[in-house]
């Protein structure tokens, strides 16, 4: 009865170190770790102790006897990562080699770090820093709610993935941690302010916008981007009033990465099933009135080049009707004959078994379409469809649609006072040290570009923190010039409506209470409502506030 890792794997590697027999790979020290689509348990070496189950922050691991039918393909997927062997390996006491944690070697006062952003890269960086005693971390976030794309990006039907927020909540309780939510760096406080109060500033601000498709008609009513649409259904306050019209039968999504699959799934899932999630109320109302019967996910290249990952494709096809037309089935057959990479082959084998788009359907469905290069949007006042050419030819194809969403990747935006690489949409850096900006570091998508999974940010943040601590130990970070406690006074003066850890807990509890017994939470989607909830947080007694001001 080996254990099995399923689709919701976040790849942060926590399970690897919990395993007493080192049977989960690739481990963070192995070359394939950074690019792996998920981690895999070796069924022949697994001793069924269940240690990995408790360590996994997103509930992605189960014994193979407890899998839901839709998870059964993951038994084979885990096993296929390893060479075929018979029977069981004798148990060993081998452990995965633990990557060395950064060690602070100076004893002259605490290391103070400001982290800008509060998504996974920020929270993993805070955790890594706080493994040492005598470190203070202040996390700045412009929204009153933390956790970045885990809150506003992960699709609401992937609730297990969102469970990683319990881990992040634990980090907020660590000694030395402080939240400055609803505080915008560059507005309420500057980079220079942060350097005055800290040894270092670490930006983990992600990629806050999207790559734009430069074709005629984009911007017309009925066109938009997947990033806006995802933020809308996830209740991000900036997109709460996005006009989403689903009064037509077809939606076209351009690009076929995992975000495109998320968008297509939400548009074709029975709203009653979404009603038990934390989807924004406004999105549920619109989806309940939806007339959409088909979402076409359009890729410019061939099936073998599909950007979505194999675990996500397995998950999607287990729950949704996904079809291909006859010409695309032919492309899949051709690619399958050539494929050697096991993950690509795995995707093609699933695509080959999908139904034919010509067959009638009695529920909303998803169609994957290939080799179509976007040319322009059709329509005058509002979108009526999209024109493509068959990639590499002049042959034009059109798809009638009432909504066209581009899903061609996220993109980082420049940070005031820091260098920026326009080509990659990242801040130029060397293992996280920002080029030409002493005391400044980056982690996550703003460091390496918008790729990977939640847990990829753990090793990314750890690398940055190692460099930061090495610089601190080497004495090249000038200490803060302001006295401890002054930061809090400065920020409160500039932004009296700042939300701290207690304020976030109050918002969190209020959302969970609003969700009742049917939903994990009902999100606030308006900043003022969040602030009202934060204001109900009990204030710490005066002596405690004074003490924490002195200690921080
Ligand atoms: P992505 O995986 O980079 O996919 C981008 C897609 O856009 C590709 O199909 C790409 O095609 C296409 N594209 C780019 N430029 C185009 C153009 N000018 N015209 C037409 N198509 C174009 O991006 P993403 O879906 O935004 O995902 C970002 C990251 O988040 C990925 O690492 C993803 O795995 C991760 N993510 C993971 C999950 C999950 O694990 N559940 C969920 C969401 C996101 P080409 O390949 O031809 O360039």
TrEMBL record:
The protein's name in its UniProt record: ferredoxin--NADP(+) reductase
Coiled coil: none
Domain 4Fe-4S ferredoxin-type intervals: 1-29, 37-66
Pfam families: Fer4, Pyr_redox_2
Species this chain originates from: Mycolicibacterium sediminis
Keyword Aminoacyl-tRNA synthetase included in the entry's annotation: no
Catalytic activity: 2 reduced [2Fe-2S]-[ferredoxin] + NADP(+) + H(+) = 2 oxidized [2Fe-2S]-[ferredoxin] + NADPH
E.C. numbers: 1.18.1.2
InterPro entries: 4Fe4S_Fe-S-bd (IPR017896), 4Fe4S_Fe_S_CS (IPR017900), FAD/NAD-bd_sf (IPR036188), FAD/NAD-binding_dom (IPR023753), Ferredox_Rdtase (IPR055275)
PANTHER family: GLUTAMATE SYNTHASE 1 [NADH], CHLOROPLASTIC-LIKE
